[in-house]
Amino acid sequence: MERVYKQMKKAGVANITVGVLLIVIGITMGVLNIVSGGKLLRSRKEILF
Known about the structure:
Number of helices: 1
Strand content: under 5%
Order of helices and strands: H
Distance between the termini: 70 Å
Largest sheet: none
Structural class: mainly alpha
């Protein structure tokens, strides 16, 4: 029975780790998108069609 609890603990730790990593990656990508969008808006006067 103890093996089951150890496996459940490992699975829980892995899920929490993956969740934290996904949150950090999501925040980072959002900030990068905002920054690149700001740069595009700033340089839109230079675009010729």
